Amino acid sequence: MPYKTNSDLPDPVKNVLPAHAQDIYRAAFNNAWEEYKDAEKRNTNDSREDVARKVAWAAVKKVYEKIDDTWQKK
């Protein structure tokens, strides 16, 4: 399910990521949700939501890194 706003994101995302990182997560998730709607496009047996979640976290990790318990821009 795509997210319209950052307030719609799951609590584990909202509670740990800064606002900009949430923007990245949401945009990447929504794009992946659309891109991988067909199961044939997924290289795994993961669900559409799982794939979108993995893509979203990978996008966040390109710009942010977790230091101790906080996510900080690289």
Question: What attributes does this structure have?
Answer:
74 residues; mainly alpha; Rna Polymerase Sigma Factor, Chain: A; two-stranded antiparallel sheet; 3 helices; 2 strands; 50% helix; 11% strand; globular
Could you describe the 3D structure shown?
The protein is mainly α and 74 residues long. The chain has one domain (18-73): ChaB (Rna Polymerase Sigma Factor, Chain: A, Orthogonal Bundle). 50% of the residues lie in helices and 11% in strands. It contains 3 helices and 2 strands; from the N terminus they run αααββ. Helix 2 runs antiparallel to helix 3 (48-63). 20% of the residues are buried.
Structural class: mainly alpha
Biggest sheet, in brief?
2 strands, antiparallel
**What is CATH's topology name?**
Rna Polymerase Sigma Factor, Chain: A
Quantity of strands, as a count: 2
In CATH terms, what is the architecture? Orthogonal Bundle
Q: What share of residues are in beta strands?
A: 5-15%
How far apart the termini lie comes to: 29 Å
Topology:
Elements: H1 11-14, H2 19-35, H3 48-63, E1 64-67, E2 70-73
Antiparallel strand pairs: 1-2
Quick description:
This protein is mainly alpha-helical. 50% of the residues lie in helices and 11% in strands. It is built from three helices and two strands, in the order H-H-H-E-E.
